[in-house]
Amino acid sequence: MSWSYILRRIVFLFFVIWVTSTIIFFIPRISARNPVRERLAELSRMTGFTPVDLEKIIAAYNEKFGLNKPLAEQYVDYMSGVLRGDLGPSLAKYPKTVWSLILDALPWTIALLFVTTLISFVLGNLLGAMTAWPKSPRWVKALMGPMMMLQGVPPYLLGLLLIFFVAFRLKLLPINGAMNAGTVPEFSLKFILDALRHQILPAVSMILSSVAFWALGMRGMGVTIQGEDYVNFAEHKGLSSSVIFRDYYVRNALLPQVTGLALAFGSVITSGVLIETLFALPGLGSVLGQAIAQNDYFVIFGISFFIIIAVTLLMLIVDIIYPLLDPRIRLNTK
Amino acid sequence: MTTLAVNPSSVAAFQPPSRGVLAMRYLRRNKSLGIGIALLVFLTLFSISGHLLLNVNKMAYPLAVKSKMPPDPGCLFDSTKQLNKNCLVLGSDFYGRDLFAVMARGLAQTAQIGALAGLIGTVVGTVLGFIAAYFGGVIDAVIRALTEVLLPIPVFLIQVLIAGAIDKKLVTVTTMALIVVLLAWMGPTRVIRAQVLSMRERMFVNVAKLSGMSNLEIIFKEIMPNLLPFLGSSFVGQVFAAIFASFGLAVLGLGPLREPLIGNTLYFAQYQAAIFNGWWWWPLWPSLTLIMVFGGLTLIMVGLDEIANPRVRRSE
User: Fold this and answer.
1) Is there a contact between B251 and A274 if contact means CB atoms under 8 Å apart?
2) DSSP string covering B13-49, please?
């Protein structure tokens, strides 16, 4: 492992983050809609009270948030704020800051995505290895067909079917929401159990499609390993098949899957956004959806920025860990 | 010594199986490709029959029929055994759209997005990949840097932002396809570049060069035919990605809301809390249809992969 490689990766990471944050800064500003005007219009619709000097109020808001300056100046101002860790206020929910919105939503998103990714990685790799293993029973191998199809189906659709059959028809689990109506988040067993019950359907729908993804990848690896000399040798040595399965077969096939983990984060976050809107969970995805509907620049930027940093950082970590896992791969400095 | 006289008439009688038969035989071996194609053919027939039976341009839009009707397959033929044109086989939604017509029209639009974005993505990706690999140097470095920077980003996020920022009046089926394809050419570029790089070094390309073929001739006559399986598989991959992304945008309510796109139907069903209200058929048909679309495309990709990478071919 060379330090210059890691350094290069980190520089590259910063470059990617800078390019994308520039893109996500400018895109919402193409729109002709002004979030401040929209928020005030919404207020006056709801209260029936239209302030006389609406334009003055809007101008005051624009002044306060620096929206009346030229775009380039706004960009420099905002970016230097971001470098200091200040993502600005929410325009639609002022005086809440973007950070407070992110921190409120984050636990829900992390809980859902982290748990489902972990479960499906373990379950999927096990299933995949078993389907490629020549000695496993027929019914395990028969799982491959449905899996191939399931791999491409977005969790959103599986979630809809689950809501229909499990929640609506059988009435086993709640249709949507993160907790029972009227409950307040607190640290008690009753609340935790209730929250868990609400997480089952979203989690299952995410797991179903990603299990298939991991299983197929693992199966592909497993098939190529079957004929290898060292597997044959282990068999002839008289090792029990469970030992061969665990130490010779899964161990070797698992390595490339770890790199897949890095690539999967991006798509997991995408489906997470959709699943959160489907189940009305208060996570990052729902907040982002709302911010886009209100064209709330700062919130849109903050959440996208946060997601991009998370994804690229996780990729970097996997990149660095991988050579440690697989001694055959040495990073050369070129 | 016996001579085996071949009866000339039997020679004439033996005909190599026609291409169609051979293709069918291949599909029987390559099951995932076969099933995937069958699913898509079924959906195409479904959509075509909808267009033939119904006035899709009217029935798939709001206020065409009495709203909130549950599906009634029994009403297809009336008492005199005549085809009942007003029958709502799949029911209607809250806004008074015949869901059969919505599905038929939506499938056609989905196919339109997939084909347009798939074609543009593959062509752009292929051209860039070719240029990068074949000419190398600075061009290669620029194209590679661009793909490397863009690949790790969750592209869907950017697509959502673009779709959210542009004027609602501008969002049509075509612009959806364009938004989707804007950030979807990197995959094919990488695949094609890698393939061309490895092919450039092979013997037959060297021979072609020595025999005085021009660059363009080598690209189109020597390299392109060998790339066809990869092009096919990356085209299907692009179609899949495009439909996937446009589905995600539509479900978030960022699609062309007037159109009966399947993702839009799901968005509206969700918006009106259809399942909560007991209108189960409204979200059910679109989700089943889309599962068939995505499942079918995935199976085709797996099948094509088997053609493109013989190493994946089953060892059993």
Assistant:
1) yes
2) H--PPPHHHHHHHHHHHSHHHHHHHHHHHHHHHHHHH
pTM for the model stands at 0.84
Q: Is B21 on the interface with A (CB under 8 A)?
A: no
Say how far apart CA B32 and CA A217 lie, in whole Å.
Answer: 16
Task: Report the complex ipTM.
Answer: 0.82
Q: What is the pLDDT of residues B180-198, one digit of tens each?
A: 888 888 888 888 888 888 8
pLDDT at B4: 61
**Hey, is B83 helix, strand or coil?**
strand
Chain A nearest CA to B212, separation (Å): 35
pLDDT band at B314; cut points 50, 70, 90: very low
Tokens of B88: 């709502």
Six-digit token string for B224: 């392109």
- What pLDDT score does B116 carry? 93
Residue B12: CB atoms within 10 Å: 8
Place of tokens 């697989």: A326
Residue with tokens 């009707």: B69
Closest by CA position to B209, among listed B198, B197, B193, B221:
B221
Distances (CA, A) of B237 to A158, B154, B242: 21, 17, 9
Residues 30-49 of A with CB under 8 A from B: 30-32
Nearest to A266 by CA among A131, A155, A113, A162: A113
Contact B287 A157 (CB under 8 A): yes
pLDDT confidence of residue B113 = 93
| Burial profile A50-63: b = 16 or more Cβ within 10 angstroms, e = fewer | eeeeeeeebeebee
A116: exposed, middle or buried (C-beta count within 10 Å: 0-12, 13-18, 19+)? buried
Question: Which stretch of DSSP H or E encloses residue B156?
Answer: helix B155-165
Contact A245, A133 (CB under 8 A): yes
**Helical H segments across chain A, by residue range:** 3-26, 35-47, 54-65, 71-83, 98-132, 138-142, 144-151, 155-162, 189-226, 229-237, 241-243, 251-279, 284-294, 297-325
Query: Do B164 and A163 make contact, defined as CB atoms within 8 angstroms?
Result: no
* CB within 8 Å: B156 and A273: yes
Q: Residue-wise over B192-218: b if at least 16 C-beta within 10 A, else e? A: bbebbeebbeeeebeebeeeeeeeeeb
Reported as a single tens digit per residue, the pLDDT across A49-64 is 666 677 777 777 777 7
Does the structure show a pLDDT above 80 at B63?
no
Residues near B50 by Cβ (< 8 Å), separated by ≥ 6?
B56, B100, B101, B103, B104, B105, B107
Average pLDDT, stretch B137-152? 84
- On the question of pLDDT at A331 being above 60, the answer is no
- Decide if pLDDT at B311 tops 60: no
pLDDT of residue B239: 93
